[in-house]
């Protein structure tokens, strides 16, 4: 039991690092701020008085947007105690957190229906065992985030928030 819990925590931490990046994940856990990395635009080769063509880095929370999705209900497969295949309902309420300052972020709202459709396609392939435990939840969130990044064709999606996940 302790091993399963440790693996779940490790998977959750890995998913957090994979979706946010190491520095941002550590900053989230410790409550500190992340220093913006130096790029060619702000590494000292631009104008010193701030008149360069790239915008100055903003506070991280000022560019984070959250867009909720309508409730998703799909059938998933399950196995009873006697080994018989059956179906269950999976109800999911979720939201997408994205960085509005990143390229492609302006397309997320217009592609929201495609995102929801992609989420449903994935969810219909799951079994009841796939969504059990913290490891199942971490994998589910990582897969939904991967699909959000693919459909939006950008790295703007940062995280999937799940408010309700019910298997009945």
Automatic annotation (TrEMBL):
Per its UniProt record, what Pfam families does this chain match? FliL
- Keyword Membrane annotated: yes
Q: Which InterPro entries match?
A: FliL
In the bilayer, the protein is annotated as: Single-pass membrane protein
Which domain of life does this protein belong to? Bacteria
User: Quick one: a GO biological-process term for this protein?
Assistant: chemotaxis
What's in the keyword line of the UniProt record? Cell inner membrane, Cell membrane, Cell projection, Chemotaxis, Cilium, Flagellar rotation, Flagellum, Membrane, Signal, Transmembrane, Transmembrane helix
Signal peptide start-end: 1-18
Q: Which GO terms describe its cellular component?
A: bacterial-type flagellum basal body; plasma membrane
**Principal location listed in the UniProt entry:** membrane
Q: What exactly does this protein do?
A: Controls the rotational direction of flagella during chemotaxis.
The entry assigns this protein to a family as follows:
Belongs to the FliL family.
**Name under which the protein is recorded:** Flagellar protein FliL
Q: Which organism is it from?
A: Pseudooceanicola atlanticus
């Amino acid at each position: 039991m302790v091993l399963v819990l440790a693996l779940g925590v490790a998977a959750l931490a890995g998913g957090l690092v994979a979706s946010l990046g190491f520095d941002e994940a550590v900053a989230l856990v410790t409550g500190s701020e992340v220093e913006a990395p130096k790029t060619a635009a702000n590494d000292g080769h631009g104008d010193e008085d701030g008149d360069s063509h790239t915008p100055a880095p903003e506070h991280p929370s000022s560019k984070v947007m959250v867009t909720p999705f309508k409730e998703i209900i799909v059938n998933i497969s399950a196995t009873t105690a006697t080994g018989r295949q059956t179906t269950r309902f999976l109800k999911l309420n979720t939201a997408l957190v994205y960085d509005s300052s990143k390229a492609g972020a302006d397309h997320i709202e217009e592609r929201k229906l495609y995102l929801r459709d992609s989420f449903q396609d994935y969810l219909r392939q799951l079994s009841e065992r796939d969504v059990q435990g913290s490891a199942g939840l971490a994998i589910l969130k990582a897969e939904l985030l991967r699909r959000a990044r693919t459909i939006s064709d950008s790295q703007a999606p940062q995280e999937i928030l799940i408010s309700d996940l019910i298997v009945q």
